[in-house]
Design a protein that fits this description.
Helices cover about 40% and strands about 15% of the residues. The protein has helices at about 30-40, 55-70, 90-100, 120-135, 150-155, 175-185, 205-215, 215-225, 240-245, 255-260, and strands at about 5, 15, 20, 45, 75-80, 110, 140-145, 165-170, 190, 230. The longest helix is centred in the middle third of the chain and has 16 residues, at about 120-135. It holds the Pfam family Aldo_ket_red. Its EC number is 1.1.1.-.
Length: about 280
C-alpha cells in the first residue's frame, strides 16, 4: 500500500494519515492501539500533554517499532504543549517532560495546543518553541486551533512560521476560509476528530458515496481529507477499525463526490470554539 506524505515548507514531510489518541486512556488499551497501528502500517502517531496518555503511547511506539523492525526515524510523532505551560520559562521543561513520558529523544512535531486569549503570551511561547527548533531538539513546530487572526498576530513576531495548523475539520465544518489562508501561507492543514466521534458516519450523503465506492463511511471521510490536502488523524482503539481507517489509498473521490461532501458544510463544531476557549 503506497501511502501519501505531505511536504512542509521547510522540506520535511508528514504522513497524510496518522493515528489520533485524544480521549484514549493511559492504559494497556492505548499501548496496544498504538502498537497495532504501527504493525498495520501507520507511520504517524499524534498525542498531547493534556491527553495524559504519553506514557502508554510511548510504550506502544516502543513495542510497535520492536515488532515491526522499524527504526525511530521511520515514525512521525506529534505531541502538544498545554496552556498551563505557556510562557518562555516553561516551554523547554514541558517539552522535556513530554519526551520523558514518551520515552523518546525528540518528537517530529511540537504544537501550541490552543491560541488562548493572550496574544503576547502566545508570542512569548512561540519564541521558546523557535528556540527548541533552532537548538535541534524538535524537527518541526506548529500550532493547533488557530484562526486567521491568531496566525496573523503570530506571524508578525515569528522568525519561523508554523509548519502546520491542526484544526477541527470535517464536511460539517470545512473551514474553507481558514484553509485558503493556510495554503497561501504554505502552512499545512491537519484535521482532528475528523469522524466527529462517529456522528458524520450516519450522514446519508456520506453513506451513499460509501455505497457507490464499496467503502465504509469512515473511509470516505478520511479520503475526503486526503483529497482536500488535509493531513488526517482518525482515532480508534479497535484493531479492525485501525486497519480500516488506513485502507484508503486504493481509491480517490471524484470531483463530483467531493462537491457533494463539501456541500454538507454547516460550520458545525463538536469541539470548543478557539475564539472563546480558555482551557478551563
Amino acid at each position: 500500500m503506497t501511502q501519501k506524505s505531505v511536504e512542509f515548507y521547510n522540506g520535511n514531510t508528514i504522513p497524510a494519515l496518522g493515528l489520533g489518541t485524544f480521549r484514549v486512556e493511559n492504559n494497556d488499551e492505548c499501548t496496544e492501539a498504538v502498537k497495532h497501528a504501527i504493525i498495520s502500517g501507520y507511520r504517524h502517531i499524534d498525542t498531547a500533554q493534556t491527553y495524559h496518555n504519553e506514557e502508554k503511547v510511548g510504550q506502544g511506539i516502543k513495542e510497535g517499532l520492536e515488532v515491526s523492525g522499524l527504526n525511530r526515524k521511520d515514525l512521525f510523532v506529534t505531541t502538544k504543549l498545554w496552556m498551563s505551560d505557556y510562557g518562555s520559562e516553561n516551554v523547554q521543561d514541558a517539552y522535556e517532560a513530554s519526551l520523558k513520558r514518551l520515552g523518546l529523544e525528540y518528537v517530529d512535531l511540537y504544537l501550541i495546543h490552543w491560541p488562548g486569549q493572550d496574544e503576547h503570551l502566545i508570542a512569548e511561547t512561540w519564541k521558546a518553541m523557535e528556540q527548541l527548533y533552532n537548538d535541534g531538539k524538535v524537527k518541526n513546530i506548529g500550532v493547533s486551533n488557530f484562526h486567521v487572526h491568531h496566525l496573523e498576530s503570530l506571524l508578525q513576531v515569528a522568525s519561523i512560521k508554523p509548519v502546520i495548523n491542526q484544526i477541527e475539520c470535517h464536511p460539517y465544518l470545512t473551514q474553507k476560509e481558514l484553509r485558503t489562508y493556510l495554503e497561501a501561507q504554505k502552512i499545512v492543514a491537519q484535521s482532528w476528530s475528523p469522524l466527529m466521534n462517529g456522528q458524520i458516519l450516519e450522514d446519508e450523503t456520506v453513506k451513499t458515496i460509501a455505497d457507490e465506492l464499496g467503502k465504509t463511511p469512515a473511509q470516505i471521510i478520511i479520503r475526503w481529507n486526503i483529497d482536500e490536502s488535509i493531513v488526517v488523524i482518525p482515532k480508534s482503539v479497535t484493531p479492525s477499525r485501525i486497519e480500516e481507517n488506513l485502507n484508503v489509498f486504493d481509491f480517490e473521490l471524484t470531483s463530483e463526490q467531493l462537491s457533494r461532501l463539501n456541500a454538507l458544510n454547516k460550520d458545525g463544531r463538536i469541539g470548543p470554539d478557539p475564539e472563546t476557549f480558555t482551557g478551563n
